[in-house]
């Protein structure tokens, strides 16, 4: 957990200080990819609480989902169907579901302690 | 060992997440809305068009500046201002149709149709009307014709073409068919203006059977305008 936070902080600092710019064209695709990545992170958090965490699954899901979501948004843009809605919907849905589970586990754990 | 490996992967992944997140946030500070690829290419086209127009205008500006410089140079030594004005006059004569011209171009011959009439067909369909001539004239101008004559009559800026029964009156002269239109310009473009499937000439020959013959030539001679040009109402605007 602490390692994850450290990684996040390092990443943010790097992002703040590295002057990387990409054309706004790709902004949408990257947004969707970030959403997918966040979904993976919440999923990992949840499976961690269920003691089912598996690094391989997390890594493959993190990159796979992000790339797939980005490509999906791009293809949708190309063929004129806003497919990125599908990605937003699916990953948003799962994100909230994961968060709900996490919340439940946390509350149950606290009740156990008290 | 396994734990260190896992921790390393976690570190890297969260680094990537934070990194991408921050970059996205940094790049999002301008107000952003979803733009489809098509809109983008449309806008790109528009921008390019505007740029081309700007280029055009700049060229015009350069032109005028050069002209001004010429005048200034001439006004410094008084002798040559006459020369400059002379060359200007010659140029204007060239444009307005008061000198004989020669250049590459096209000769179009329009004659009435010679086919059999259909039953109940109006014979009006078979003859050339002044509007056909005007339409072809206009299409030749679209194709970049720089000087045009019809049956040896130079077409100038205020030439009028009038229907006169089976004949056509151009300015004060009346001509019967065939009408021979000569135009100076890029021969290929001019020929396309007469023959392409969208053109009036094509329509005439395809649907009405009117004979449209065109022939490009490296040397088309166009005579000067012979009539007089009288003006009554136009006046020079003061201060121009």
TrEMBL record, chain A:
The listed locations are: Cell membrane
For whether the record's keyword set contains Hydrolase, the answer is no
UniProt entry tagged with the keyword Cell membrane? yes
Q: Which InterPro entries match?
A: DUF1290
What keywords would UniProt list here?
Answer: Cell membrane, Membrane, Transmembrane, Transmembrane helix
TM ranges are 25-45, 57-76, 82-102
How does this chain sit within the bilayer? Multi-pass membrane protein
Q: Which domain of life is it from?
A: Bacteria
Which Pfam families does this entry report, sorted A to Z?
Answer: DUF1290
* Homology family: Belongs to the sbp family.
Record's protein name: Small basic protein
Automatic annotation (TrEMBL), chain B:
Q: Name one Pfam family in it.
A: DUF881
Specify the domain of life of the species encoding this protein.
Bacteria
Cleavable signal peptide = none
Transmembrane stretches, start-end? 7-26
As recorded in UniProt, coiled-coil segments are 37-74
Q: Which InterPro entries match?
A: DUF881 (IPR010273)
Q: Which UniProt keywords apply?
A: Coiled coil, Membrane, RNA-binding, Transmembrane, Transmembrane helix
Family according to the record: Belongs to the UPF0749 family.
* Protein name per its UniProtKB record: Uncharacterized protein YlxW (UPF0749 family)
């Amino acid at each position: 957990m602490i390692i994850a936070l450290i990684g996040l902080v390092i990443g943010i600092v790097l992002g703040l200080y590295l002057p990387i710019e990409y054309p706004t064209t790709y902004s949408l695709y990257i947004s969707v990819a970030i959403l997918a990545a966040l979904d993976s992170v919440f999923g990992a958090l949840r499976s961690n609480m269920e003691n089912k965490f598996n690094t391989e699954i997390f890594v493959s899901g993190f990159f796979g989902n992000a790339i797939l979501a980005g490509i999906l948004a791009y293809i949708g843009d190309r063929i004129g169907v806003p497919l990125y809605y599908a990605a937003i919907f699916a990953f948003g849905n799962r994100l909230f579901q994961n968060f709900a589970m996490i919340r439940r586990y946390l509350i149950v754990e606290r009740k156990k302690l008290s | 060992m396994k734990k260190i490996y896992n921790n390393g992967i976690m570190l890297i992944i969260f680094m990537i997440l934070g990194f991408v997140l921050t970059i996205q946030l940094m790049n999002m500070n301008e107000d952003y809305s979803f733009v489809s690829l098509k809109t983008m290419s449309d806008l790109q086209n528009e921008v390019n068009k505007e740029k081309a127009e700007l280029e055009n205008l700049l060229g015009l500006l350069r032109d005028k500046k050069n002209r001004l410089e010429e005048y200034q140079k001439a006004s410094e030594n008084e002798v040559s201002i006459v020369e400059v004005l002379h060359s200007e006059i010659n140029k204007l004569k060239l444009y307005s149709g008061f000198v004989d011209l020669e250049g590459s171009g096209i000769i179009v011959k329009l004659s009435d149709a010679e086919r059999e009439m259909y039953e109940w067909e109006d014979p009006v369909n078979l003859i050339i009307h002044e509007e056909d001539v005007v339409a072809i004239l206009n299409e030749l101008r679209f194709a970049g014709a720089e000087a045009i004559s019809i049956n040896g009559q130079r077409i100038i800026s205020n030439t009028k073409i009038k229907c006169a029964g089976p004949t056509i009156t151009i300015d004060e002269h009346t001509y019967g068919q065939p009408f021979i239109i000569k135009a100076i310009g890029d021969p290929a473009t001019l020929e396309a203006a007469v023959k392409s499937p969208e053109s009036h000439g094509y329509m005439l020959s395809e649907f009405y059977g009117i004979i449209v013959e065109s022939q490009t030539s490296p040397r088309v001679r166009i005579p000067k305008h012979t009539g007089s040009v009288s003006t009554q109402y136009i006046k020079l605007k003061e201060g121009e």
